[in-house]
Each structure stands twice: as structure tokens, then as C-alpha cells.
């Protein structure tokens, strides 16, 4: 038995690895079949992360395979040399504690000094010696490597695990049609396979699904309402105990005289990337710098179940709701909370635009995206406030700029909605989306003043110059808006709405002030432009990136799990097994279904994961390019991979219970959590938004739950329980009214999962 030592020489960092903040990444493995009972291999040594020579603070290695134990950690940059030793002791006890024989092992500048040797443990007085093979790998990694997302590290750049199948492939159509298992051609009547979709149709009027006005239900003068707010620097506020009074009338008045203050010169767009270092505390209460790389880091990061990941930064109450350790989101939030000015930690996206320009549509979509990514977001629709306070039957006159009562009433409801939004942010809300026309500079100035010192404001203006699209939008509005629900005469409604539009057009002032994003003719996904001014920061950057990729071209997205796999039959999770007989039959039925469903489409693509069961499910599909995405791989169940749920319950009861308690945040040791999965799926969502042709996604249960939650606008907490049965296709129809869903069940599944 011996020891293997390696040090990456091609890391490209050159010179001293301390330069540029590069750090030492150490991966240790120990192999022996005879380590049993309570004894678990540990590592302890000269740096705090491995206990500073205190055996009780030694880091425990994790079982990777039956006979292989593993531990990786990153040494903080202020430690030149690392002395360490292996020891055996119980995971949660101090004795017995058997330290390996021989001198300390010394790593200097990433190189192991002295002889490579096996670890020898004297287990008994009678000199019984246990010899373990040891593998030591040290690597110099730059902070960027560590901080970058799962995509960046070599583990994820490995080629597909399914040998012989290229990442992109296309099967030519064979002579004759796809056959089913019995050899006869499947004549599919698609309608025959439709089953009811579980979620309510999302075509209902989007504004109805926005926040319920709170300010409207407060007693007293609506122009003077109490908002619990601590910031008292605003000249329009007066302190009253811990609450603070906003005098809305004075905001409006003041904004009439002071309109030039908010016009900074246009600046370049700045996009910042952030690292993912976070100071974490482990179960035993030891402090150490573990590196939270979010997803896909099974080799790099010490096992970390959800309950071991608690930030010890004493941040504000946002920390309660922030999905910890959710990769980029958590990293950005930590960085923002530590470095950004207080008001920049909350973001108000204020919509601007004439009626029927897609403001509510865009606001709802952005809300859905940000919530899905884990940012607490709410959509405040001023129209809803107006309808509640003034009824649904206001005529076009109400919207005339020379109608003082109408103007006052409209400003009032806008201010009330803004007030609700700011109060919500004060209670921990992160992103408020403020949806109204806000089409004059005076109104925007009022909103800016209200938000001063409390949140960052970005205007999001939707502009459309295509008369045909405007006409279509107007007709959609008449059909959907509660403003015309009681108007029996469609043409009269149309005339009134057009008159309302003219009233707005007369006083419309496009945004030229503050930070803004302008979406100009961005409906088709081709042409059009997105202009940005004075935008910086992680979240605004993501928002711009999201918006630039969205469009309204109608197309279906078909989501399906792979056909039943051998592991499904045995009730085992994860793995990379082939299909069962039933699974193979499904793959043929699916090919048949897709052939028929996408018959009239000029192009389409089939996306699979890199696991055999999805690739095999796609294999009978012909004529469409197939693309393998590693991001579509099933949730990584780490050390539980290949086990049944019963086995996990029996052998790792703590893990089983932790998952049961919080399935969304629970991270399998050396694997992923649902939140991790969501983070790694973000590029998939962006690409699904950007595609204009149909896409068929053949993936896995956990991944499809996460994708489906985005389209169906389901809250994160529900994600791990969403039903995604085998042998069923979920069709998401993207289009001008939003997202609609249909389900087709092609065959029964023989197993519950
Ligand atoms: N960027 C856009 N430009 C033009 N029309 C859009 C845009 N985004 C969505 N739409 C379309 O506009 C229709 C009406 O949108 P809605 O959000 O109700 O308008 P608004 O809130 O501006 O009155 C939507 O159903 C959608 O089809
Ligand atoms: O999060 P839970 O409910 O465990 O579901 C995810 C599990 O679904 C499974 C089946 O049990 O997906 P898949 O069918 O893709 O194999 C497991 O591999 C995976 O771990």
C-alpha cells in the first residue's frame, strides 16, 4: 500500500500562489475496508480550519464509497505551510482517539514535503496496526475559480458521462415510421391523452393577481397615513415614536417645483460579478472558512447539509428569507448586504409607459422570475388600488390631465400603493415592482422622493411603435380588464379605452431621468432594443439580462421525465441506469407523440440531461437536434446516490429527518439541494425564454419540478412536492397572454416515482 500525491502544475497561476489571493485547495482520501464501528477518519493540523492541533476540532472525513473516505478544504491565504495528520475517532465523541504514527505531514506552497506514506494506526496495546492507503491532492486555485458558479470548475467541464454519444446529435428519419413496443405503428390522437392540469389557468387578468392593497384599508385621512418606518431624514416626514408619517400631498406639491434634481448625466452600464465566499459555521460550532460554491461542487466542498449552513454574518432581517447557500443568489445578497449602501439593498422597479404597452405583463413576468430565483419580490398594481377605491367603471374623462379631481385621485392611489410597497420593503421585502403608467415626470419625481433613502429606484419603460401590436393589445385589454367587465358593448369599450389612451398620450414624457431600462419594440424577439442608463449591481444586471432575452413569440415548451428507469423500478434514487421495458415503450410513444405534435413546426430542439435515462428516452426521436445539458441532470443526491429512501431512513436517520423538515433547502451530503438545482437551472430558463422555436425538455423529477415552478408561478416552498409523474408530458404554451398549460399522459407508470 502506498500514498499518491499530486499537485496540479497547470493551474496557470504562476509564481507564488499567494499572489492575487490564490488559495490552497486540499483534497484528502483514505482507503481501507477495515475502518468500522464508530471510528471515522479525521484530519487535524496547524491551521484553524483543521482544528489548530486540537483533536476535538479535527475535521471528519466523509464516506465517499464503502471503503473510501474523503475530505476537501481550502486553506485561507494567510497560511503558508500546512502541517497535518490523520486520526481515527468517533464522529461525535472524543475517545477513543488514535492518531496516525510517524511525523507530521507537511504541505508547503502546495507541495508535500518528505516521503509519501500510508497512514498507520495502532489500534490496540497489542500493537495491532491498521494500514490505510492515502491520496493527497493539493491544488492552487484562484479566487475566481472558487467563486465562479458550478459551470466554471473542471468537474463540470467533463464530457458527457454517456460514452459515445456526442453532446449534440441528430438522428435522421428512418424509412417508415416510429414503431411502438408491439411493432405496430402508433396512431396517436393527441386529444385522447389529455389529462387535467393541476394549476389554475394563468390567463386570468394578471393585475388581479398582484398585491392586495393594505393602505386602502387604513382608517383616517387617506392623504396622511402612518407607515412604520425608521428612516427619518426625509424632509417630508415627521417622527412619531417608531413610526413615521408621510405627507403625500406635500410630496406631490414639492415634486412640482423640483424636477431637475433627478437628472444625472447618462453613464455607462456597469456589470459587476461577485464572489461566493461566505463565512460559515459548521455543526460543531467551529468557525472556519468553508467555501460555498453553490451547486455542483461534490469534490470541493465539505459535506454540508442545510442545517450546517448558517451564515454568521449578523445581517438584517432579510437573512430570514434569503435562501442560504443558494449559490449566486446567496453570494450576491451577502456581498450587497455587506458593501452596498443601505438603500441599495432594496430595489424598486417602477414601470413607465402608455396603457396597453405590456407593463403589467412584464411586471408579472419579472416578479415570477425573481421570486423563482429566491429574491423576495412583490408586484404592486396601481390599477387595482384605483379600482378598489373608485370602482371599475371610470370613463376616459377620469384620465384627462385637465381633470383636477381625476388627477388627484390617481396620484393618491399611486402614493398609497407606493406607501404599501415601501412599508413592505421596510419589513424585509427585497424587490418591489411598481406597476402604473407613471408617464409624467412629475409623477415619477413624487415616487422618487417617497423612495429617497429607502430603496434604489430603476424605471422600466415599455415602448411599442408597432400599430398592429398596440391594436392587438388594446383588444386583449378590453377582453380581460375588469374596467370593461361590465361594459356589454365591446365597441363602446374600445372607443372609451382609445380615448383614455389619447388622454395619456397628450402628457406622456418618456423617461430621461435616473436609472432606467427602456424596452423598445421587444415583442418579437428579433429587432427591437433595450436601452439602459445608469444600471449597476448584481440584481439589476440579472434583470437586464432576463428582459433582453424575453419575447412574445408563441411556442410550446414540452417537459417530460425520462421513461421509467431500472432504478425507478427498484425505488433507488439518482444513479445512471438504463430504461426498464416500460421506459423503453414510453420512449417510442414519446417519439410518436412529438412527431405528431411538432409536425407543423419548422424547427424544434430536444434537450436532455447527460444521464443515460434521458438520452435513451430521446433516442427514438428523429429529425430534431438533440442537445445534452449538464444543468438538466437530476438533483445530485451525493452520498445517498443509488440508495432507496428506506435505506436512507435506516442508515442516515439524521439526514432523512433534515430532508423531511426542509426539503427545499436540504442539501445531500456532497450533493445538492432543490435551491441549488434552481440556481443551476437559471441559464436553462433564460434559454427557454430566448428560444423562438419549440423545445422538448427530457429531464428528471427534481429538475422538472424546478422548471415547472417557474412557468406555473408556484412558490419556492412548494417546489419539492410538485407532482411530475412519469410518462406524462407537460405542455407549456408561451404566448401573448402569458403561460398556459396542458398535460398529456401517454401511459401508466408501474412505480410511484
Ligand atoms: N414589451 C411589450 N411591448 C408591447 N406589448 C407587450 C409587451 N409585453 C407584453 N405585451 C403585450 O401587451 C398586452 C397588454 O399588456 P398589459 O401588460 O396589460 O399592458 P399595460 O399594463 O401596459 O396596460 C399583453 O397581453 C402582451 O400581449
Ligand atoms: O426530491 P425527491 O422527491 O427525492 O425526488 C427526486 C428523485 O427523483 C428520482 C426518482 O426517485 O428522479 P429520476 O426519476 O430522474 O431518477 C431520483 O433520482 C431523485 O433523487
From TrEMBL:
One GO molecular function term of this record is: starch binding
| Domain of life of the source | Eukaryota
Which SMART domains does the UniProt record give? CBM_2, PGAM
User: Known InterPro entries for this protein?
Assistant: 6Pfruct_kin, 6Phosfructo_kin, Carb-bd-like_fold, CBM20, His_Pase_superF_clade-1, His_PPase_superfam, Ig-like_fold, P-loop_NTPase
Q: Where is the CBM20 domain?
A: 18-123
Xref: Pfam families: 6PF2K (PF01591), CBM_20 (PF00686), His_Phos_1 (PF00300)
Write out the GO biological process terms.
fructose 2,6-bisphosphate metabolic process; fructose metabolic process
This entry carries the following GO cellular component terms, namely:
cytosol
Q: Does the keyword ATP-binding apply?
A: yes
Q: In its UniProt entry, what is this protein called?
A: CBM20 domain-containing protein
The species is Rhynchospora pubera
